[in-house]
Design goal:
6-stranded parallel beta sheet, 236 residues, DNA polymerase, domain 1, Rossmann fold, 2 domains, single chain
Length: 236
Protein backbone atom coordinates (compact mmCIF):
# COMPACT_ATOMS: atom_id res chain seq x y z
CA UNK A 1 0.00 0.00 0.00
CA UNK A 2 1.11 3.57 -0.58
CA UNK A 3 1.43 6.10 2.23
CA UNK A 4 -2.07 7.34 1.44
CA UNK A 5 -3.54 3.89 1.94
CA UNK A 6 -4.18 3.36 -1.76
CA UNK A 7 -3.03 0.26 -3.69
CA UNK A 8 0.20 0.85 -5.63
CA UNK A 9 -0.05 1.88 -9.28
CA UNK A 10 -0.09 -1.03 -11.70
CA UNK A 11 1.50 -0.78 -15.13
CA UNK A 12 -0.92 -0.09 -17.95
CA UNK A 13 -1.50 -3.13 -20.12
CA UNK A 14 -0.06 -2.93 -23.62
CA UNK A 15 -2.57 -2.42 -26.43
CA UNK A 16 -2.59 -6.05 -27.57
CA UNK A 17 -5.30 -8.34 -28.89
CA UNK A 18 -6.88 -10.02 -25.86
CA UNK A 19 -6.82 -13.75 -25.23
CA UNK A 20 -10.06 -13.55 -23.23
CA UNK A 21 -12.83 -10.97 -23.01
CA UNK A 22 -15.08 -10.06 -20.09
CA UNK A 23 -18.30 -8.28 -21.03
CA UNK A 24 -20.41 -6.37 -18.53
CA UNK A 25 -24.07 -7.44 -18.49
CA UNK A 26 -26.56 -4.80 -17.34
CA UNK A 27 -26.69 -1.76 -19.66
CA UNK A 28 -23.77 -3.10 -21.72
CA UNK A 29 -25.47 -6.22 -23.07
CA UNK A 30 -29.01 -5.86 -21.67
CA UNK A 31 -31.29 -2.82 -21.64
CA UNK A 32 -32.06 -1.86 -18.06
CA UNK A 33 -34.40 0.89 -19.29
CA UNK A 34 -36.88 -1.90 -20.02
CA UNK A 35 -37.60 -1.90 -16.27
CA UNK A 36 -39.52 1.35 -16.82
CA UNK A 37 -42.69 -0.57 -17.72
CA UNK A 38 -42.52 -2.47 -14.43
CA UNK A 39 -42.30 0.78 -12.49
CA UNK A 40 -45.49 1.91 -14.22
CA UNK A 41 -47.09 -1.45 -13.40
CA UNK A 42 -46.65 -0.76 -9.66
CA UNK A 43 -47.80 2.86 -9.87
CA UNK A 44 -44.43 4.59 -10.01
CA UNK A 45 -43.11 6.99 -12.69
CA UNK A 46 -41.33 5.25 -15.57
CA UNK A 47 -38.23 7.43 -15.21
CA UNK A 48 -37.56 6.14 -11.67
CA UNK A 49 -35.82 3.07 -13.10
CA UNK A 50 -32.71 5.16 -13.72
CA UNK A 51 -32.52 6.63 -10.21
CA UNK A 52 -33.13 3.19 -8.75
CA UNK A 53 -30.41 1.49 -10.80
CA UNK A 54 -27.90 4.27 -10.18
CA UNK A 55 -28.65 4.13 -6.44
CA UNK A 56 -28.21 0.36 -6.37
CA UNK A 57 -24.80 0.61 -8.05
CA UNK A 58 -23.73 3.45 -5.76
CA UNK A 59 -24.76 1.60 -2.63
CA UNK A 60 -23.06 -1.61 -3.74
CA UNK A 61 -19.82 0.24 -4.45
CA UNK A 62 -20.00 2.02 -1.09
CA UNK A 63 -20.55 -1.25 0.75
CA UNK A 64 -17.58 -2.73 -1.12
CA UNK A 65 -15.39 0.19 -0.07
CA UNK A 66 -16.45 -0.37 3.54
CA UNK A 67 -15.78 -4.12 3.48
CA UNK A 68 -17.98 -6.97 2.25
CA UNK A 69 -20.97 -6.07 0.09
CA UNK A 70 -24.38 -7.68 0.41
CA UNK A 71 -25.63 -9.61 -2.66
CA UNK A 72 -26.90 -7.47 -5.51
CA UNK A 73 -30.50 -8.61 -4.95
CA UNK A 74 -30.49 -7.32 -1.38
CA UNK A 75 -28.81 -4.05 -2.32
CA UNK A 76 -31.20 -3.52 -5.23
CA UNK A 77 -34.25 -4.28 -3.08
CA UNK A 78 -33.20 -1.70 -0.50
CA UNK A 79 -32.46 0.85 -3.23
CA UNK A 80 -35.86 0.26 -4.84
CA UNK A 81 -37.64 0.59 -1.52
CA UNK A 82 -35.89 3.93 -0.91
CA UNK A 83 -36.47 5.21 -4.45
CA UNK A 84 -40.21 4.51 -4.13
CA UNK A 85 -40.39 6.29 -0.78
CA UNK A 86 -41.11 3.04 1.09
CA UNK A 87 -44.54 2.86 -0.54
CA UNK A 88 -44.26 -0.47 -2.41
CA UNK A 89 -45.45 -3.82 -1.09
CA UNK A 90 -43.14 -6.82 -1.11
CA UNK A 91 -45.09 -8.16 -4.09
CA UNK A 92 -44.54 -4.91 -6.00
CA UNK A 93 -40.82 -4.98 -5.19
CA UNK A 94 -40.69 -8.57 -6.45
CA UNK A 95 -42.42 -7.57 -9.69
CA UNK A 96 -39.91 -4.84 -10.49
CA UNK A 97 -36.82 -6.81 -9.48
CA UNK A 98 -37.87 -9.91 -11.39
CA UNK A 99 -37.61 -7.78 -14.50
CA UNK A 100 -33.82 -8.11 -14.43
CA UNK A 101 -34.22 -11.66 -15.76
CA UNK A 102 -36.31 -10.43 -18.72
CA UNK A 103 -34.29 -7.54 -20.15
CA UNK A 104 -33.93 -7.30 -23.95
CA UNK A 105 -30.47 -7.00 -25.56
CA UNK A 106 -28.98 -3.94 -27.18
CA UNK A 107 -28.81 -4.30 -30.96
CA UNK A 108 -25.03 -4.06 -31.14
CA UNK A 109 -24.39 -6.93 -28.72
CA UNK A 110 -25.01 -10.04 -30.82
CA UNK A 111 -22.78 -8.81 -33.68
CA UNK A 112 -20.03 -8.11 -31.13
CA UNK A 113 -20.29 -11.57 -29.60
CA UNK A 114 -20.42 -13.19 -33.04
CA UNK A 115 -17.19 -11.43 -34.01
CA UNK A 116 -15.45 -12.70 -30.87
CA UNK A 117 -16.74 -16.21 -31.54
CA UNK A 118 -15.42 -16.13 -35.12
CA UNK A 119 -12.06 -14.98 -33.76
CA UNK A 120 -12.13 -17.91 -31.30
CA UNK A 121 -11.57 -15.62 -28.32
CA UNK A 122 -13.17 -16.98 -25.12
CA UNK A 123 -15.80 -14.53 -23.96
CA UNK A 124 -17.47 -14.37 -20.56
CA UNK A 125 -20.23 -12.30 -19.00
CA UNK A 126 -18.96 -10.44 -15.94
CA UNK A 127 -21.42 -8.84 -13.53
CA UNK A 128 -21.89 -7.93 -9.91
CA UNK A 129 -25.50 -9.01 -10.17
CA UNK A 130 -26.70 -12.49 -9.33
CA UNK A 131 -25.19 -15.04 -11.73
CA UNK A 132 -28.48 -16.97 -11.95
CA UNK A 133 -30.41 -13.83 -12.91
CA UNK A 134 -27.79 -12.88 -15.49
CA UNK A 135 -27.86 -16.41 -16.94
CA UNK A 136 -31.66 -16.36 -17.20
CA UNK A 137 -31.65 -12.94 -18.87
CA UNK A 138 -28.89 -13.86 -21.33
CA UNK A 139 -30.67 -17.11 -22.17
CA UNK A 140 -33.90 -15.26 -22.93
CA UNK A 141 -32.00 -12.68 -24.99
CA UNK A 142 -30.38 -15.45 -27.04
CA UNK A 143 -26.86 -14.36 -26.11
CA UNK A 144 -25.62 -17.01 -23.72
CA UNK A 145 -24.75 -19.40 -26.52
CA UNK A 146 -21.83 -17.11 -27.41
CA UNK A 147 -20.40 -17.12 -23.88
CA UNK A 148 -18.04 -19.58 -22.21
CA UNK A 149 -19.44 -18.68 -18.79
CA UNK A 150 -21.04 -16.09 -16.53
CA UNK A 151 -19.02 -14.76 -13.59
CA UNK A 152 -20.42 -12.65 -10.76
CA UNK A 153 -18.43 -10.65 -8.24
CA UNK A 154 -21.10 -11.69 -5.72
CA UNK A 155 -18.87 -14.74 -5.29
CA UNK A 156 -16.34 -12.56 -3.45
CA UNK A 157 -18.95 -10.26 -1.83
CA UNK A 158 -17.95 -7.25 -3.92
CA UNK A 159 -19.11 -4.87 -6.59
CA UNK A 160 -16.86 -3.58 -9.36
CA UNK A 161 -14.56 -1.57 -9.75
CA UNK A 162 -11.84 -2.40 -7.13
CA UNK A 163 -8.76 -4.08 -8.62
CA UNK A 164 -9.30 -7.25 -6.58
CA UNK A 165 -12.59 -7.84 -8.42
CA UNK A 166 -10.88 -7.84 -11.83
CA UNK A 167 -8.03 -9.96 -10.41
CA UNK A 168 -10.60 -12.54 -9.32
CA UNK A 169 -12.27 -12.53 -12.75
CA UNK A 170 -8.95 -12.98 -14.56
CA UNK A 171 -8.13 -15.91 -12.30
CA UNK A 172 -11.57 -17.37 -13.01
CA UNK A 173 -10.93 -17.29 -16.77
CA UNK A 174 -7.34 -18.52 -16.25
CA UNK A 175 -5.74 -15.73 -18.27
CA UNK A 176 -3.08 -13.16 -17.25
CA UNK A 177 -4.77 -9.84 -16.59
CA UNK A 178 -2.73 -7.98 -19.22
CA UNK A 179 -4.19 -10.33 -21.87
CA UNK A 180 -7.81 -9.92 -20.70
CA UNK A 181 -10.08 -7.19 -22.03
CA UNK A 182 -13.01 -5.76 -20.10
CA UNK A 183 -15.72 -4.36 -22.37
CA UNK A 184 -18.47 -2.20 -20.92
CA UNK A 185 -20.74 0.78 -21.53
CA UNK A 186 -19.83 2.21 -18.11
CA UNK A 187 -16.67 4.34 -18.13
CA UNK A 188 -16.13 3.73 -14.39
CA UNK A 189 -16.05 -0.04 -15.04
CA UNK A 190 -13.50 0.28 -17.85
CA UNK A 191 -11.53 2.73 -15.69
CA UNK A 192 -11.34 0.16 -12.91
CA UNK A 193 -10.22 -2.55 -15.32
CA UNK A 194 -7.51 -0.39 -16.90
CA UNK A 195 -6.24 0.66 -13.48
CA UNK A 196 -6.14 -3.03 -12.51
CA UNK A 197 -3.91 -3.82 -15.51
CA UNK A 198 -6.46 -5.13 -18.02
CA UNK A 199 -7.14 -3.96 -21.56
CA UNK A 200 -10.17 -1.66 -21.60
CA UNK A 201 -12.85 -1.30 -24.27
CA UNK A 202 -15.55 1.35 -23.80
CA UNK A 203 -18.80 1.56 -25.75
CA UNK A 204 -19.79 5.22 -25.47
CA UNK A 205 -23.46 4.78 -26.45
CA UNK A 206 -24.49 5.32 -22.81
CA UNK A 207 -22.31 8.31 -21.93
CA UNK A 208 -21.68 9.88 -25.36
CA UNK A 209 -17.89 10.22 -25.00
CA UNK A 210 -14.97 9.14 -22.84
CA UNK A 211 -15.09 11.30 -19.68
CA UNK A 212 -11.96 13.34 -19.02
CA UNK A 213 -11.80 12.02 -15.45
CA UNK A 214 -11.20 8.34 -16.23
CA UNK A 215 -8.22 6.34 -17.40
CA UNK A 216 -8.10 6.28 -21.19
CA UNK A 217 -9.55 3.06 -22.61
CA UNK A 218 -7.37 1.13 -25.04
CA UNK A 219 -10.24 1.29 -27.52
CA UNK A 220 -13.49 3.25 -27.57
CA UNK A 221 -16.39 3.59 -29.99
CA UNK A 222 -20.11 4.26 -29.78
CA UNK A 223 -21.20 0.72 -30.66
CA UNK A 224 -20.17 -2.45 -28.86
CA UNK A 225 -19.47 -4.32 -32.09
CA UNK A 226 -17.14 -1.53 -33.22
CA UNK A 227 -15.30 -1.73 -29.89
CA UNK A 228 -14.80 -5.46 -30.48
CA UNK A 229 -13.58 -4.82 -34.04
CA UNK A 230 -10.97 -2.41 -32.63
CA UNK A 231 -9.88 -4.96 -30.02
CA UNK A 232 -9.48 -7.64 -32.66
CA UNK A 233 -7.41 -5.25 -34.79
CA UNK A 234 -4.83 -4.78 -32.02
CA UNK A 235 -1.47 -6.46 -32.56
CA UNK A 236 -1.13 -9.97 -31.16
Amino acid sequence: MTSGGEPPERPRAAARRPRAVLVDVFETMLRVDALAARFVDVGRPAHEWELFFTRALRDGMALTLAGRAKPFGEVARAALRTTAGHTLSEEALDHVLSGFAHLPPHRDVEPALQALARAKIPTYAFTHGAARTACDALDRAGLRTYLRGVHSAETIAAFKPPARVYDWACAAVETPRERVALVAAHSWDVHGAVRAGLVGGLATRLEGAVPATVERPHVAAERLDTVVDHLLALPA
